Amino acid sequence: MASSPIDRRAIPAGGRIDRWLASDGWDHRVFDWRAETDTPRGSILFEGGRGDIFEKYLESFAHWHAAGWNITSFDWRGQGGSGRLTASKNCGHIEDYADYIRDLREFWAGWTAANPGPRIAMGHSMGGHLTLRALAEGAIAPDAAVLVAPMLGFKAGIFGPFAERAANFLGGLGDPARPAWKGNEKPYTTETRASLLTHDPDRYADEICWQTQRPELLTGPPSWRWVIEGFRSIRELAADPRLAEIRVPVLMLVAERDGLIDGKAALALAPRLPDVRVVRFGKESAHEILRESDAVRDRALGAIDSFLDERAPRA
């Protein structure tokens, strides 16, 4: 395995897995790791991407925990260890991305009451998209936000500029809750899933190990509804005038050669945020920047640490 301060394939001592029920009764799986000090550096709420489980980020959590942060994360509804939404248990489905935002708003309200500041919202990929959308809608009010490879545009596929129209058409040919494709992270590609996510084979293998140990955590392809609603949420967020009103300091980490989402869309949107810092990665980084090779991951963690020290100092 690549060098790591912890066993990436085991829940760390002191880490706790709980359940949280949304107001509609939907069950979510939550990870919580309290700082081992009476005066924590602050608190981080980390949200993963589509199909993610929080176990994938234990190594990064350990880095922040060692610096004195409280760490919390939860699996989004419909994936990982949270309640599933379709009969096809491995299909990642959502009816409307507003459901994700409602969950985040409710969880954030309870979490802030139980965790000291400064409070940081972090999101990877879909989690980055939802974090930014929640900021624009006023659903959360962190002291700072970190967006890692945020899903602000889908990578162009065979349908090019007509991809959203094609998704609506194809999704309407049957039950939109059915899987949109088989296997890989994106359709119509010869790239392997591993190469789309990270150049580090050991860190990629961590996820496979967790899925082997806990097959019920596996989330496969998205539903057509997830894809359709993803296009809509991305388009509407890009046109949202409230982006210019966000006063929360934002750090955005962008993999310019990302083969899964469109890094150019993130770079185009970033200048519209009043207080943003962008860190770019080139061909050395695939989509999962925090699970990349040591050189990439260390640079990313260093950028996050510097940003938080400057923009979210200890209370």
What's the quick description here?
One of its GO terms (molecular function) is hydrolase activity. This is Alpha/beta hydrolase. The chain is α/β, with parallel strands linked by helices.
What does this structure look like?
An 8-stranded mixed β-sheet has the order 1-2-4-3-5-6-7-8, sandwiched between helices. The chain has a single domain, classed as Alpha/Beta hydrolase fold, catalytic domain (Rossmann fold), CATH 3.40.50.1820. Helices cover 34% and strands 16% of the residues. The longest helix has 18 residues, at 97-114. The model has no long low-confidence stretch (mean pLDDT 94). Helix 2 (97-114) packs across helix 3 (126-137) and helix 4 (163-171) packs antiparallel against helix 7. The chain is of the alpha/beta class and 315 residues long. Keywords: Hydrolase.
Shape: globular
Number of helices: 9
CATH architecture: 3-Layer(aba) Sandwich
Largest sheet, in brief, is:
8 strands, mixed
CATH class: Alpha Beta
InterPro entries: AB_hydrolase_fold (IPR029058), Hydrolase_4 (IPR022742), MAG_DAG_Lipase (IPR051044)
Domain Serine aminopeptidase S33: 39-294
GO molecular function: hydrolase activity
Protein name: Alpha/beta hydrolase
